[in-house]
Write a structure and sequence with these properties.
It is built from 9 helices and no strands. With 227 residues, the chain is an all-alpha fold. It has a domain of 82 residues. Helix 1 packs across helix 5, helix 2 runs antiparallel to helix 4 and helix 5 crosses helix 9. It is flat. The two termini are 19 Å apart. Keywords: Membrane, Transmembrane, Transmembrane helix.
Length: 227
């Protein structure tokens, strides 16, 4: 999943449901669990050395992290190690829960329909550039007329007003899916389990997925910079 950080949620569910049971899938996630077990053992040994460095001093000569912690052990708190161990255990539990669970259950089918299938249908329903431009122009003209009507004197500041209106047009058009052929999206490119779901409901699910993927991507960047 490291190669799909920008669409992590979508790619994860798609990978789980479509690749479950294959040899490559099993090997990948068994290796992932082994890697986490390695980190768990490493953390436990370092923690053991931290608690009693006189009895267990040996590990500091074998691991650079242990040597660092041994050197600055008076400045560190044991709760850092406990949090690290808990995070590794939660990660192992998460892999076991999501990647080694049967995917023919209703819960996984709902996740797949909402996150993967709905997203695929969204991309199949993208409108043409010409139609998108027409929608943007129509929305801009409507917002411009509203602004001139409500703020007649402020509308004199044309460059600034135009910029602000275009920002609002871009934001609202994105939230309301102006770049999608909504008739095609609702009538032909339906969801599988929720084939009669409304445009509003599907739009909210889609925006939630996009927001979640952006948030996960941002978290990875932040933690990457911290490390």
């Amino acid at each position: 999943m490291l190669f799909h950080l920008k669409t992590y949620l979508y790619s994860s569910i798609k990978h789980i449901v479509e690749q479950y049971g294959t040899k490559q899938y099993r090997l990948l996630h068994i290796f992932e669990i082994i890697s986490y077990i390695y980190w768990l053992i490493r953390l436990l040994l370092i923690f053991l050395m931290y608690l009693d460095p006189e009895t267990f001093p040996f590990y500091q000569t074998m691991d650079y992290a242990s040597a660092y912690i041994y050197r600055y052990r008076t400045l560190l708190n044991k709760f850092f190690f406990i949090i690290g161990i808990m995070m590794v255990l939660i990660s192992i539990l998460g892999i076991r829960t999501f990647f080694f669970h049967r995917v023919d259950t209703l819960s996984f089918q709902i996740l797949y329909d909402c996150i993967v299938y709905n997203n695929d249908q969204y991309y199949k329903s993208l409108d043409t550039k010409e139609n998108i431009q027409i929608k943007l122009s129509t929305r801009y003209n409507h917002y411009r007329q509203q602004f001139q009507k409500n703020y007649q004197y402020l509308s004199i500041i044309n460059p600034l007003v135009d910029r602000l209106i275009w920002i609002r047009v871009w934001f609202d058009s994105w939230l309301q899916l102006d770049h999608v052929d909504k008739k095609l999206f609702i009538e032909q490119n339906k969801m599988q389990l929720f084939s009669h779901s409304s445009l509003k409901g599907r739009t909210q699910i889609l925006l939630l997925n996009i927001f979640a993927d952006k948030l996960i991507y941002l978290i990875h960047i932040i933690f990457g910079k911290i490390k």
